[in-house]
Amino acid sequence: MEYRSGRRSAESPLEEAGPMGREILLRAKMNRDALMYEKDVSLKLNKLDEVTAGVGQETKDKQQSWSLLAAWGGDENACMSQGENRAMPPCQHPRLTSLAGDSDDDASIASKSTYAVTRSDCTGKVSSPGAYLRLQSIATAPAPHPLPDLLRLTASRHQIPMETIIHSMASLSRAGKERGKKKINQDSCFAFRQFVHAHQAIAGVMDGHGPNGHAVSRFIRKRLPAAIAEEIKAKGEVAVQPVLRSSFIQAHEDLRYAPESINARLSGSTALVTLLQGKRVTAAWVGDSRAIIVRQEEAGVWRGIPLTQDHKPSVTGEYNRIVNYGGRVEKLADSSGREIGPYRVWLPRAWVPGLAMSRAIGDFVAHSVGVIADPEVVIHEVDDRDTFLILASDGVWEFMSIQDVATLVAPCISAEEACRLIVQEATSRWQAVDEGVIDDITVVATKFLKQQ
To answer: How far apart, in whole angstroms, are the C-alpha atoms of residue 14 and residue 18?
Structure first.
């Protein structure tokens, strides 16, 4: 397959489907293309490994070498000419030995759970013939957000035990369909009514993408809560913003040392986490999974308040970063020249990876051209009128607005009921398109107790 020719076009099966069908089927086609591209550069990888061994490389890292090749469109000579030696930063691997309260396939109340976390450290120097893929996320400040950013636990209201704040917490995830056939669910989620301390709770949603998206999202589901727990114990719960940012980046780096079955070169995942500390909710996210607060206004009107905003490559700040790192932001086009789907991130001289978001965990090839794992973080103080905290993957938001979800869950008496209604309604709206295509749908809901 030629990857450096003119603009790649969608083929006839995509053209025959409707707009949403084309988008979902396009994802499956891009996954197949990604695997073919990986095979296409494997010989160059082997040759690159031989070269690095010849100049006395102490530790080989195939994922890094692959990323370096891909960053230059698979051009070995260009990679060599731009090379410099850098040391790989220490990598710390948290291992979760006890995890409960997460659910992939059905709704469940997240019971009080505790973590038993151990830690092992690994360090290694890597001398590569190409520029080391640095952690852009550490040096890149998150985009501004309209909600206030409260950085400290400022009152006793942040120390209130969760049992006096949360009525119920639940999760529900349903696998989607492609052409009427059930697909592998690439979504994952977790929910803990008690996390590290009695006054803390946590919930998260991950939406995987790429050939190994399901494996990446499940990896993050286990590693990210463990990393956050360790960071809280090490830095304290007051430093919530740096705790969440460093935990996201740590989970991303841990993927480099994951088994080959969790190959994240062309696969990755969104990650959305909400950490509750008393009446304070801190949301951190990369990608397009969303969190909202459902609030009952004084006039009896229910309103959805967004806590997050999608990380899309078409957004000015995100676009500029990607272009500055040598990436391209373009849409695909069909054989008639019509543009299909959202703007995507591409390598400078290859039609991969085609990532439709500007921030994600994993996606090491996309990270070589400006995609980052640095989360955006916002803080929300829970109001006495707030009734639900809803986290959901884009399978919900494709056909449901924030207000649709708020209105739907307003009368719900529990988090389990809210999850069930949202998943049912989102599925019905996908089916109404009548194209035999449904995306994975995942919801985590927290119902707050009515405060006296």
So the answer is: 8
